[in-house]
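Duplicate of #3305? Posting structure anyway:
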């Protein structure tokens, strides 16, 4: 059984009880099992269980007993608890952000569990949880210091008896005790080695903790930089390299055309994959005030979509777009323009994407071109910008724009890095702001870097 939803707040007790009881009931009724494979995110929080993944794996272990191998694959943004590791035999985390290796890591989990069932290996694992976090804006594994930390994690697999190593960046917006970075080492029957390897990897990150939490550009600075650095479009059909084999996305290599193309601004405060609203207008407002043209972004705004549908394609009208979900993501911005395209919302992306997703649906949507040189894709479902086909399917060629705003941090990179001259991370306000001091935590560990200066010796 498989259930999925977009992240947006605490999971209700009723939702968890209904879904887990159905899944656990199937597990109980259809056994016995040779092994169990789980595919969890790892940062789920419910009203009853702050460590929901720990509780779910506990329930699975209780049903199948101590001798049935259990493997779990987790997202790289998991806040992993010691209970989750204790309840499983194999805990494997994705190693790329944006997440391009989901299938590879899933196969690795299945392979380790299969070898366990066949009696070829005896996996034991250890988790190291240093008192630190990495800011969401520094979690791209193609840039330092995360690139080196992942490389070290991969290289540790060359140590004899090491079966797998994982690094989890954590999800810094969950107010739970486990929030933060963690490392897992799995060895073949050697618990001391598993502990040593995970501690050594964590120690390397601890030495880089300042670089893992450096600030990024403000909205005005990012827009000024984008205006100054835009040169022109790439030659038709020319793109920066994008891996399609599950390997990590690196920064775009320098070439004759790498400096050409749109400047892409990552709207950190409105990161839909992190639980945001998808209707932030903070960047749009400043861009209009600066008179920027050749500007493209999407906005969740079912009210404006409805008005455009009623008016019809070709209609000219005034709208107040975005900023309607809450008071954290700006106010509606007044725009005047033309309804150019109306569409029902589904599209398919065959290029590599964050998380490996292929089928998407924005709901009823509208392409709205403003009189002051902006293009806004209005959607009736909360949608991120992780697939370039989102734009192509509406007749939009993002390559033709000067500035593109993508709602996210790392997840839009596979979509937009191939056509971009540069990607600028923007410290925009919102529920997923890069400024963690704007949030009030009640349950996190204390001390925890960068909030405090803990003493830590692996």
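Output from current build:
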């Amino acid at each position: 059984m498989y259930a999925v939803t977009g992240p947006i707040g605490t999971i209700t007790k009723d939702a968890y009880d209904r879904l887990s009881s159905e899944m656990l009931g199937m597990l109980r009724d259809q056994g016995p099992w040779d092994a169990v494979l789980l595919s969890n995110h790892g940062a789920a929080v419910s009203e009853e269980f702050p460590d929901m993944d720990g509780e779910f794996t506990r329930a699975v272990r209780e049903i199948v007993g101590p001798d049935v191998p259990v493997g779990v694959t987790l997202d790289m943004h998991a806040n992993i608890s010691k209970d989750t590791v204790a309840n499983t035999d194999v805990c494997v985390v994705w190693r790329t952000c944006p997440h391009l290796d989901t299938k590879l890591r899933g196969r690795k989990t299945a392979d380790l569990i299969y070898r366990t069932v066949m009696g070829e290996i005896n996996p034991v694992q250890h988790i190291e949880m240093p008192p630190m976090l990495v800011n969401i804006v520094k979690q791209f594994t193609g840039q330092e210091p995360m690139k080196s930390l992942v490389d070290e994690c991969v290289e540790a697999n060359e140590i004899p008896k090491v079966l797998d190593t994982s690094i989890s960046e954590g999800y810094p917006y969950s107010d739970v005790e486990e929030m933060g970075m963690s490392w897992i080492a799995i060895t073949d029957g050697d618990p001391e080695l598993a502990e040593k390897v995970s501690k050594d990897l964590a120690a390397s990150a601890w030495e880089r903790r300042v670089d893992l939490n450096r600030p990024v550009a403000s909205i005005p600075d990012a827009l000024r930089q984008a205006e100054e650095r835009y040169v022109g479009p790439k030659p038709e059909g020319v793109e920066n390299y994008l891996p399609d084999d599950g390997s990590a996305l690196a920064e775009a290599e320098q070439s004759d055309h790498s400096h050409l193309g749109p400047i892409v601004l990552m709207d950190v405060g409105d990161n839909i994959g992190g639980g945001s609203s998808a209707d932030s207008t903070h960047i749009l407002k400043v861009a209009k005030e600066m008179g920027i043209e050749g500007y493209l972004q999407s906005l969740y705004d079912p009210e404006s979509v409805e008005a455009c549908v009623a008016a019809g394609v070709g209609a000219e009208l005034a709208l107040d777009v975005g900023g309607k979900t809450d008071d954290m993501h700006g106010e509606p911005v007044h725009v005047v323009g033309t309804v150019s395209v109306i569409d029902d919302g589904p599209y398919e992306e065959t290029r590599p994407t964050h998380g490996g997703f292929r089928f998407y649906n924005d709901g009823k949507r509208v392409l709205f071109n403003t009189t002051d040189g902006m293009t806004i894709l209005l959607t009736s479902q909360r949608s991120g910008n992780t697939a370039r086909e989102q734009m192509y399917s509406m007749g939009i060629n993002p390559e033709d724009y000067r500035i593109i705003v993508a709602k996210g941090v790392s997840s839009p990179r596979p979509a937009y890095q191939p056509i971009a001259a540069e990607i600028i991370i923007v410290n925009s306000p919102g529920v997923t702001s890069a400024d963690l001091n704007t949030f009030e935590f009640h349950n996190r560990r204390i001390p925890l870097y960068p909030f405090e200066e803990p003493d830590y010796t692996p």
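Confirmed duplicate; merging threads. The radius of gyration is 23 Å. The CA atoms of residues 349 and 358 lie 5 Å apart.
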